Amino acid sequence: MQYFKAPQKEALFVMNELLGYEKHYADLGFTDATPDMVEAIFSEAAKFAENVLAPINASGDAEGCKWEDGVVTTPTGFKDAYQQYVEGGWTGMTHPEKFGGQALPYSLNSVMAEWFSSANHSWAMYPGLSQGCIETLKEHGTEAQQKMFLHNLVGGSWTGTMCLTEPHCGSDLGMLKCKAEPNDDGSYSLTGTKIFISAGEHDMSENIVHIVIARLPDAPSGTKGISLFVVPKFHAGPEGEKLDRNAVTCGSIEHKMGIKGSATCVINFDGAKGYLVGTENRGLNCMFTFMNSARIGTGLEGLSASEAAFQGALAYAKDRLQFRAMTGVKNPDGPADPIINHPDVRRMLLTQKAFAEGNRALAIYAMKLVDVTQASQDEDAKTFANSKLALLTPIVKAFLTETAQESTSYGMQVFGGHGFIAEWGMEQLARDTRICTMYEGTTGIQAIDLLARKVVGSNGKLLTVFTNEVKEYCKSIRDKSQFNAWSNSIDKHIDEWHQITEDIMQRAAKNPAELGAASVDYLMYSGYIVVGYFWLQMAVVAQQKLDDGTGDPEFYKAKLHTAKFYFDRLLTRTRSLVSSMESGADNLMDMEEEQFNIV
Amino acid sequence: MQYFKAPQKEALFVMNELLGYEKHYADLGFTDATPDMVEAIFSEAAKFAENVLAPINASGDAEGCKWEDGVVTTPTGFKDAYQQYVEGGWTGMTHPEKFGGQALPYSLNSVMAEWFSSANHSWAMYPGLSQGCIETLKEHGTEAQQKMFLHNLVGGSWTGTMCLTEPHCGSDLGMLKCKAEPNDDGSYSLTGTKIFISAGEHDMSENIVHIVIARLPDAPSGTKGISLFVVPKFHAGPEGEKLDRNAVTCGSIEHKMGIKGSATCVINFDGAKGYLVGTENRGLNCMFTFMNSARIGTGLEGLSASEAAFQGALAYAKDRLQFRAMTGVKNPDGPADPIINHPDVRRMLLTQKAFAEGNRALAIYAMKLVDVTQASQDEDAKTFANSKLALLTPIVKAFLTETAQESTSYGMQVFGGHGFIAEWGMEQLARDTRICTMYEGTTGIQAIDLLARKVVGSNGKLLTVFTNEVKEYCKSIRDKSQFNAWSNSIDKHIDEWHQITEDIMQRAAKNPAELGAASVDYLMYSGYIVVGYFWLQMAVVAQQKLDDGTGDPEFYKAKLHTAKFYFDRLLTRTRSLVSSMESGADNLMDMEEEQFNIV
């Protein structure tokens, strides 16, 4: 099947009707990003996703990337699609005009990134990885470095990577071994092995620019001795000329569960020449600059899989005839009724739909905050947006990718045994999106970031900044009596959220393991509440539109039904999460390591 | 890695210390199945699983089955392993001596089936599929049919299949189209296409015997017009001689997410000669005979994946160094501490451990019931066992396979990004076990079987038969005060289970969709309670052993710790399931089909 349609109307609903993006763009001075222009760009992006990327998704998975003698060949059609992407000007959309970009808002690009990833997760990673590299050089590179690299990266003829992980160090970057020795000419020689480097080597661009973390010879141990370097595959001249080959080679590519069209590379630096980016030993700080957008980007990949799985399952559920409906014959001319009539199939479809639409609202809200942090002239507004973003980023990353596991699993389950068969595309979605809870910081890492670093680390202040907004909103709709039950539920959840935070902080003061013991439940609990807040707002807007008689009433009625489903059957998952969190750390920590043993 | 160790001690604990299998076997007249003999057989089975099957698991996945011109070649080593299995006498273990079997109990075989499937899910399906075929012919075949087929099947030189599914009909067998026309000689000519036929064609045995459901020319429509036939790949003489080829061909094999070493075949019957098994139009009734054991067998596949994923994750968690423990340095000589010290890693490992061990106790309890239904001379005992089995079978099938999705997902998650890489084996476990919630009746089908057919269909009686046992047990341990909290929790859950059943029945009297709307939550809810009952019993036995000072105290302490984890963090999942169930059908059924549409 491999059916995919970019959810333009859903995105525009969130941007225009829910979150006031027209004013948002105008306020930030994005004068080109008018509603008409946004729609025109979306329409082109949708065509590209549907007609160029989706058709090479299944074949890319079947074919995979090939490695031979250090050369990586991407699946048939990937290179050509990338060429079209470059020609369409997509690579530079959000970057400054002085580097050849179009200076459009971050959010505009990110909304469409969801669709590209829905259509072809593997392919979308190649241009996606360039963004981190561009951001690094834009923020922290010298003018000379920017001249050497940025025009080509923004134009798309060169692509970029981020080289962090080493075999013995993943999350714990303090254990980093890769070395950088200073040369006489001010450059550095890098030596070491990096693994899991997405887009580390491929045939889609003329050159590959690696951002590499490494240690200087007398760097302090741990994370305080990490510096950042830019190391190209081919040396670059001062104006971005492509010169001779650098000592950077791809040792192999990984055989993985999914995203098989994405080359996951072992990259060897054998005295490769590179340049220091930013200050010595402050490499991790430079990287934190765009950690939020990178993590939101991974969350979007999860969202993209939820959406695609929903679309596939829905099409099948309307088509597949099996059994008669429990409530009476629905398809008298056929031998059986479409399975969408069966309550449990609807439960699965509505779970997918509620996650896709609710998570999208949260994601587009987070993108709006990123826009402010990047483009606002108002320092207070920036600080305020940064506070909310600090809290929401780990939730976006982990909640959108964890729920994607459930949504893609239901994508298969709605198909029954057919879901397991490659040709329907459902199993590929599940395999591809499985990486999303692991890379760019596992769910466990996001959960510790949220609970320990953000919430407890700010003594609860970052939580309050966001929950004040939610409580204000609930107060503001008090006169809409039809929403009182949901609004009260959110309001009570907010109080409970604070209470639980307080409980955990008290327990953690005595036993620091309490933070880790509660963390993932806490993150998921937070996610259900936050997305519930967006479902409440979507329902209120939808009812207003119905009352006003504007727009497509079926679209708004669907929003109200889905909100009801969310409040009845998904938000209620907080009940078990609370029980688990409140049970404390002892049930995890009391068992001796040896007692886990297999006998 | 591909590490696997058969959990012999765990199985023996459940059989001997928890469920009184020694007396059970003696009561049923299995005089050969003494504890010593059981241990000796287990020891051989463990070696076979660990040394023969596990080593060809990853290679079998990478290589897959090959189809060419109707011929299917299984992965390297599969045929040889099967030959060793046949020579070891494993194929006939539970079958009557008159067909060349060893007449040992069903349960004995099933306990080991878990290990074979842990070691190599794909491979284990080939001998597994023969069982249904053998059971059918043993129960319903004529003496002539038994002579033609059973010796070879029991001896293993021939293998069998079950041919049910067709392209347009999966769960809804009433839509079956395959035709059987009577021949003059009393045989039938079968014409039609079957899909998803596991072990339908392969190179491991000399002949393949298909049990096929089809319609006679003037059969009533629906499930009441389905008859059962035996149709061999090669015709058979009266004493089991292999003769010329029958008109049965393999049209292709499926490309699937997992179990790639298992050939999933399209089988075409083009006027193939077969023989009626049992009575005309009563085919489905014949199949229900061993539905329980087939579904428990699929549940065991889920359990096997949970166990294997736990073993892999545990080994990695002890080995991988990353960060220091929150509670202080644990590995001062190393650069970081093993990740098993991190609370969230323990949460994942304990979830796997609690599911593997709790689910195994439930499974071995269900096997005991199957033994009684098969071998008891006491009709009352048989009826009683059948009642409990009717209730528990869909729970075993669906709960053990659904929790396997979580356990195998954690298997990957504990590894971080490495979990996504093929060489560690974790992603294969997740892919292989994904089929288990879909084949042999999806989770949705099991849930309707449990709630509508078994519980409501018996007006609650089948539920009461089991819950009386649980309540009796809770009463019997009332004096053990240390277990009062857990015992009271189970007791209250049992009351709630009845109350919820009552609620659903009342709602369903008005709206039959209420059954489907609650069904999967109801099944999972039931599963958590039932497994909680077994964790309670295991904890009580473990404490008794510690008090007595017999056996390995660390083993029993681990049981108590894991029980605590189960009661604190897994049984509490019933809270959200109750909320979802009690929310009723409207939040699923009120949305119009068109409102699901993608815009």
From TrEMBL, chains A, B:
Its cofactor is FAD. Keywords: FAD, Flavoprotein, Oxidoreductase. The keyword Flavoprotein applies. Residues 281-451 form the Acyl-CoA dehydrogenase/oxidase C-terminal domain. The keyword Cell cycle does not apply. Gene3D superfamilies: Acyl-CoA dehydrogenase/oxidase, N-terminal domain, Butyryl-CoA Dehydrogenase, subunit A, domain 2, Butyryl-CoA Dehydrogenase, subunit A, domain 3. Residues 162-270 form the Acyl-CoA oxidase/dehydrogenase middle domain. InterPro entries: Acyl-CoA_dh-like_C_dom, Acyl-CoA_Oxase/DH_mid-dom, Acyl-CoA_Oxase/DH_mid-dom_sf, AcylCo_DH-like_C, AcylCo_DH/oxidase_C, AcylCoA_DH/ox_N, AcylCoA_DH/ox_N_sf, AcylCoA_DH/oxidase_NM_dom_sf. Residues 39-156 form the Acyl-CoA dehydrogenase/oxidase N-terminal domain. It holds the Pfam family Acyl-CoA_dh_M. This is 3-methylmercaptopropionyl-CoA dehydrogenase.
